[in-house]
Amino acid sequence: MSGLHPSLCDIYEEVARRNAGEKEFHQAVFEVLTSLGPVVDKHPEFADNAVIRRLCEPERQIIFRVPWLDDSGTVQINRGFRVEFNSALGPFKGGLRFHPSVYLGIVKFLGFEQIFKNSLTGLPIGGGKGGSDFDPKGRSDAEVMRFCQSFMTELYRHIGEYTDVPAGDIGVGTREIGYLFGQYKRITNRYESGVLTGKGLTWGGSQVRTEATGYGTVFFVDEILRAARDSFDGKRVVVSGSGNVAIYAIEKVHALGGIVVACSDSSGYVLDEKGIDIDVLKDVKEVQRGRISDYVEARAGAAQFVEGRSIWEVPCDIALPSATQNEVSGADAELLIKSGCRIVAEGANMPCTPEAVKLFAEAGVTFAPGKAANAGGVATSALEMQQNASRDSWTFEDTEQRLAEIMGRIHDSCLTIADEYGQPGNYMAGANIAGFIRVADAMLALGLV
Ligand code: NDP
């Protein structure tokens, strides 16, 4: 199998056979396995103890029915998922995604990625992920609340601050976490703050959690630039998406002197050559819950909406794909390379297709994979858990400083490990290997469980 160490081919084939049709999960596993050849050569104990095969099989998978009543009184049925993938380093930890495209293969890909990402943070958190095929778009507040309450009515028995700690992801922000936490509290009669992260600031949330994934991605790129004795100053940046990750990535790029000229949603992108106006964007997306096309109206002629086209046709120095998986195709990568893009850092999970990643490598474009570049979100969730456990709350500045330090450490450990395994400057290999080794060592120490 092209690109895989011979001893890993069987593992990949077993994953593909046992998880038929789950193509995103196959892709995520393949991508990690491509980096592990030198590791299995150096550490035969991992193969002897079937560590990689065990890592590819979730510890527990839960699928459940979520019935709820819409505003017209009609019964709606969705499917809920929680995949508890690996708890060698700590309680399962990872977000919930509410989007119509969610099925078991998406949840498994995200949960698998989460194991390595959480390991890279150096914090005591295992990997998991969950969600539902519920589509919050166009639903009233009351419908979202009833859905969340029904979802938690099943999920509550599987989670807990020492067991499994969900958070947000696509379609799940502070509003949804609030409804989920409220229902958990009601059912269990416990104010167990550490059971969910991404909470509001007045009820157990952490400063900087909302900003963390976007800020963290930009801190990571700042480290890449610094390592090349460069900076964000005057850099032209394109950020896809206009949700939680994208908004705060844009905010931080501007704070560091770059200019974000385009962002998007699933209907198209907006081009604003003077730089995306972050206050207008927040108002449109966070307050009004509108579409990205509404941004143009609010900017009164300063920006342009381009419907149904790829945002990657906009020339840039730095690209931050921050919407969803596989949003950067091989053709998109060619556009980016042609326009002179030098750095691609994944704010989203697996937004770049394998073809795109290969083209970036061939063209010498620095590529930072999501499991490293977007780890700031989950790292700050772990900081939220620390504050909850000690009944404490830290200031914005203190928490942001800790986030910046964590991103710096992740950056350095990717580079150090990539070097050690003979692939200098390869952030993907560094992230996969560094993430793998910490969790694999813990699995060995814990015995055959
Ligand atoms: P949000 O729901 O806040 O925003 C998602 C954005 O992506 C929206 O603008 C949405 O547009 C767009 N989008 C979603 N699906 C598609 C699609 N098929 N095509 C084009 N655009 C799409 O989610 P987040 O910002 O939280 O998450 C974005 C990515 O970042 C995901 O991959 C997530 O897994 C990852 N991530 C998030 C973390 C977090 O802390 N929130 C942590 C680490 C990673 P539309 O409204 O049109 O659907």
From TrEMBL:
UniProt-listed PROSITE patterns: GLFV_DEHYDROGENASE
Glutamate/phenylalanine/leucine/valine/L-tryptophan dehydrogenase C-terminal domain: residues covered: 206-447
A GO cellular-component term linked to this record: cytosol
One Pfam family this sequence matches: ELFV_dehydrog
GO terms classed as biological process: glutamate biosynthetic process
Keywords, comma-separated and alphabetical: NAD, Nucleotide-binding, Oxidoreductase
Molecular function per GO: glutamate dehydrogenase (NADP+) activity; nucleotide binding
Family matches, as SMART domains: ELFV_dehydrog (SM00839)
Keyword Magnesium found: no
UniProt-annotated binding residues for substrate: 93, 114, 117, 168, 381
Site feature Important for catalysis, where: 169
Active-site feature positions: 129
Binding site for NAD(+): 213, 244
Assigned protein family: Belongs to the Glu/Leu/Phe/Val dehydrogenases family.
Subunit record text: Homohexamer.
NCBIfam families linked: PRK09414.1
PANTHER family named in the record: NADP-SPECIFIC GLUTAMATE DEHYDROGENASE 1-RELATED
Protein name as annotated: Glutamate dehydrogenase
Annotated source species: Mycobacterium dioxanotrophicus
